[in-house]
């Protein structure tokens, strides 16, 4: 593939993102490259991803949201590279608005009472999620322990649950799970909440997961960004945190918390531009939200056997390394556990998850939490990218929540059982 062709794609798409940043996506189209996947294509798209905010609205390795003013130029660039494609969504803004309004309607029709389970018919606010965690701790005082683990930049309380079987032992291994790193990925906290429900309120069916293991779950890491996306439809695709930073005479908001960890920080896949979607922050752990996850990792690193961070989208089970295409020495163990999850999901729903290291399957992403946890001592560490759905892939409509969170739990449970088998309490 010639440099001219690559440059043509980057130049064309450069205009696309500049316009998209200020738009509400009305009339924007979602394109997917359908040319059979090759290593050359993977490498090129990975290079373009490093320049995402200078280039285009890149929502997945082979998916682009395109400004209608540049459709012809974009298609010409793809044709120049002999890439076939199809339009996956004719009007991203319209679909985002419809899904947003559906969720608001469900929140009004079925408000949370402060007690009992959360439903799978809506995406809940951060305050409602916290209220649910509090209600579980009150209802199951011998098995559920609420911990305030920190605050977001805007002062929201970040709360986690420690889930046990109530036998009072403090010598158990630990599985650490978090969700909601990226603000727009609403299905991630929903999946974390469903996992909590299964472990706590469906305890008898999942007693085997808690015999020699405790679970620690933080359902929303990026509370400020999450609430920002729920406030108005024009914010729906926001990804980062919300701490402002002065830059070139203006203000850029937020850092990608999943580039803010102090392990190969500011390496490949991270940006030093504060306005970039992949801005790694002015320094490692500049974000209080990343600091909270760091502290949880270090609190449990001696007993922790699996770290799982829930993201969206792509039906992927990714393990280290994200900073390099090299594989860790213990990659067969990682692959074995991830494959157990993928096979369980395929057997239950038919959905096929791709398993592999982050860089080789997706793209390079240095400074991420899964690499950090693995390096800190968790022998099993994954990013689980939930299935694609919605206008952009990040926004499953409310009717998709139930099947997606149930499918995700199938995979989590299978991976946990494999971890328990491989790392028994000694």
Automatic annotation (TrEMBL):
| Keywords, in A-Z order | Carboxypeptidase, Disulfide bond, Hydrolase, Metal-binding, Metalloprotease, Protease, Signal, Zinc
The prosthetic group or cofactor this protein requires is:
Zn(2+)
What Gene3D superfamilies does the entry give?
Answer: Metallocarboxypeptidase-like (3.30.70.340), Zn peptidases (3.40.630.10)
Q: Which residues form the Peptidase M14 domain?
A: 122-419
Q: Name one GO molecular function term.
A: zinc ion binding
Query: Which Pfam families does the entry link to?
Result: Peptidase_M14, Propep_M14
Q: Which GO terms describe its cellular component?
A: extracellular space
**SMART domains named among the record's database cross-references:** Zn_pept
Q: Alphabetically, which GO biological process terms does the record hold?
A: proteolysis
Catalytic residues at 385
Q: Where is the signal peptide?
A: 1-22
Stored PANTHER family = FI02848P-RELATED, PROTEASE FAMILY M14 CARBOXYPEPTIDASE A,B
Q: Which family does it belong to?
A: Belongs to the peptidase M14 family.
From the Swiss-Prot or TrEMBL record, give the protein name: Zinc carboxypeptidase
Say which species the protein is native to.
Answer: Musca domestica (House fly)
What lineage does UniProt assign to this protein's organism? Eukaryota, Metazoa, Ecdysozoa, Arthropoda, Hexapoda
Task: Give the gene name.
Answer: 101893917
């Amino acid at each position: 593939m010639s440099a001219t062709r690559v440059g043509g794609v980057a130049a064309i798409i450069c205009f696309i993102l500049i316009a998209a940043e200020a738009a509400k996506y009305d009339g924007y189209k979602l394109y997917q490259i359908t040319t059979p996947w090759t290593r050359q294509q993977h490498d090129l798209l990975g290079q373009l991803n490093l320049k995402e905010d200078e280039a285009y609205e890149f929502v997945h390795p082979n998916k682009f949201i395109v400004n209608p003013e540049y459709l012809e130029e974009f298609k010409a660039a793809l044709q120049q590279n002999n890439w076939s494609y199809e339009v996956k969504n004719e009007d991203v803004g319209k679909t985002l608005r419809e899904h947003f309004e559906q969720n608001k309607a469900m929140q009004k029709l079925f408000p949370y009472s402060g007690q009992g389970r959360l439903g799978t018919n809506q995406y809940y606010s951060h305050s409602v999620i916290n209220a649910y965690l509090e209600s579980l701790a009150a209802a199951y005082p011998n098995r559920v322990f609420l911990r305030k683990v920190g605050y977001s930049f805007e002062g929201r309380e970040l709360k986690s649950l420690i889930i046990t079987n109530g036998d009072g032992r403090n010598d158990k291994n630990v599985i650490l799970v978090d969700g909601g790193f990226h603000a727009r990925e609403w299905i991630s906290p929903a999946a974390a909440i469903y996992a909590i429900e299964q472990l706590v309120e469906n305890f008898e069916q999942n007693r085997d997961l808690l015999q020699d293991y405790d679970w620690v779950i933080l359902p929303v890491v990026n509370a400020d960004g999450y609430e920002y996306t729920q406030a108005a439809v024009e914010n729906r695709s926001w990804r980062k945190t919300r701490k402002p930073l002065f830059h070139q005479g203006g203000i850029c908001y937020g850092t990608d918390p999943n580039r803010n960890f102090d392990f190969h920080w500011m390496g490949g896949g991270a940006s030093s531009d504060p306005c970039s979607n992949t801005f790694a922050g002015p320094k490692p752990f500049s974000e209080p939200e990343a600091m909270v996850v760091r502290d949880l990792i270090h609190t449990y690193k001696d007993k922790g056997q699996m770290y799982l961070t829930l993201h969206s989208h792509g039906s992927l089970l990714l393990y280290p390394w994200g900073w390099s295409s090299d594989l860790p020495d213990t990659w067969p163990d990682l692959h074995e556990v991830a494959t157990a999850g993928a096979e369980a999901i395929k057997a239950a729903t038919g959905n096929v998850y791709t398993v592999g290291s982050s860089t080789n399957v997706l793209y390079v992403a240095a400074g991420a939490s899964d690499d950090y946890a693995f390096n800190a001592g968790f022998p099993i560490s994954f990013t689980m990218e939930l299935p694609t759905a919605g206008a952009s892939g990040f926004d499953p409509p409310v009717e998709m929540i139930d099947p997606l969170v149930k499918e995700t739990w199938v995979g989590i449970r299978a991976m946990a059982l494999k971890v328990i088998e491989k790392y028994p309490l000694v």
